[in-house]
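Sharing a chain and its predicted structure for anyone who wants a worked example. Both blocks are below, sequence first, tokens second.
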Amino acid sequence: MILQHRSHPVGLLATPNAIDALSEIHALPNPPLVPLKNEEIHVRRCRLAGDAVDGHFGCFRTSDLEHILQLAHGAPALIGHNRFSIAVARFFSGTIETHQNHRYIVPNFYWPKAHSGAEDFRVLLDSGLITEASIAFTFEKPTCSVCGHDIRDCDHEPGVMYGQQLCHYWYDGVDRVLEGSFVYRGSEPGTGILSEMRGSRRSLKHKRMTMRLGGKVYEVLPA
């Protein structure tokens, strides 16, 4: 199994209907022990993951987004993938939406106003100081977009142009969303996204690569 972190911008979109949100929160697996009221929680939404090629040259299939959104239902929201800390919020429900010609899962997330840092967190979100999010998930196979084989075994390199085609790999067999995090920077080229591979036969190949972006060719060096 492979563990991956993948990031995308947060979108402070329209707040979900409070009554509908409460019913969905109370129906979560391991629901709140004490029933919540509208005035006791904050609710926002974010674009957590989509079908665009990311900074690792990995990509979710559009057809898998609905499944990934379902897996995100009930997942914790952290700061910076710090799993030694307590969750600051929790994801629930959501929609699939289009943004900049790509499709994204847009889950809701809520947090209690009574928490000591709740208002600070709200201010950071609403003022635009926290603007990006990252998803941590496990998947079974990185499938090469050029030949359809496991990219750890084929001769193609992620980020290399083969004719007019940029090689990337599909995140196939996504089976769990571990958490979503609010992070300092998303998966734009060169931002150094957190990643870790576990339980795989061997790590993905990291070599000197080139990629085409906005009509220009960039060289990408491994971290």
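Comments welcome. Residues 188-203, 206-223 have pLDDT under 50 and may be disordered.
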